[in-house]
Write a structure and sequence with these properties.
This protein has about 200 residues and is an alpha/beta fold. It has five helices and seven strands, in the order H-E-E-E-E-H-E-E-E-H-H-H. The strands form two sheets. Strands 1-2-4-3 form a four-stranded mixed β-sheet, with helices on one face. A three-stranded mixed β-sheet has the order 5-7-6, with helices on one face. The longest helix is centred in the middle third of the chain and has 31 residues.
Length: about 200
């Protein structure tokens, strides 16, 4: 610690920047950890689903779901990952958009549309036009954490900032929001590295 800086100031600083630290650690792990070229399985904590992955070398790229198994055809491991990343985005949309829209309906919040993206640093966002963007990697998180993210983005339809009013609304919607926000920020550690590998 610099001379004259109290331990409380350092603790506050670290706490304030913990989300940034978590994102950077997760991003570095994606590059530093050995990654299976093509995963043997994919697990969605959000829906408690597991899919075995079977990759066949083939000139044309495709993915089909046969029972609980994803059958991937691609010429090489990079192509297989690309096919799986595309499937993940579609699968996430099918699993995330309907419960978000139901929750918005139940709470009488207006959402114009839901977009699914694959970002390294953001779990979600809300535009002034009412589009809620969700990260496809949310499917790797627990349901209560995903629900909290939904509520967070719905609160942005009323307050397009992180003001005190915004957080009061979030707390009204989800009294456990502090704990869930910490779990959400730590959630990057649960995203398999193949999701971001090119």
């Amino acid at each position: 610690m610099p001379v004259g800086v109290s331990a409380k100031v350092v603790r506050d600083f670290v706490q304030r920047f913990t989300p940034w630290i978590d994102r950077k650690v997760a991003a570095m792990q994606c590059h530093a950890e050995p990654v299976a070229l093509v995963p043997q399985g994919v697990e969605f904590a959000f829906t408690n689903e597991r899919f075995d992955v079977q990759w066949h070398s083939a000139p044309k790229r495709s993915v089909t779901l046969e029972g609980g198994r994803l059958v991937v055809h691609a010429p090489d491991d990079g192509g297989a990952r690309h096919v799986l990343q595309g499937w993940l985005k579609r699968a996430a949309g099918e699993r995330l958009a309907p419960p978000l829209m139901r929750l918005a309906n139940d709470l009488n919040y207006s959402v114009a549309r839901v977009a699914i993206r694959c970002q390294r640093t953001r779990w979600g966002s809300c535009s002034t036009r009412g589009t809620v963007s969700l990260n496809c990697s949310l499917v790797f998180l627990q349901p209560e954490v995903v629900r909290y993210l939904f509520l967070h983005e719905l609160a942005h339809t009323k307050h397009m900032n992180h003001s005190a009013s915004f957080w009061r609304l979030v707390e009204k919607l989800e009294p456990e929001y502090r704990r869930l926000d910490r779990e959400l920020l730590a959630g990057w550690r649960t995203v398999p590295a193949w999701v971001f590998r090119r």
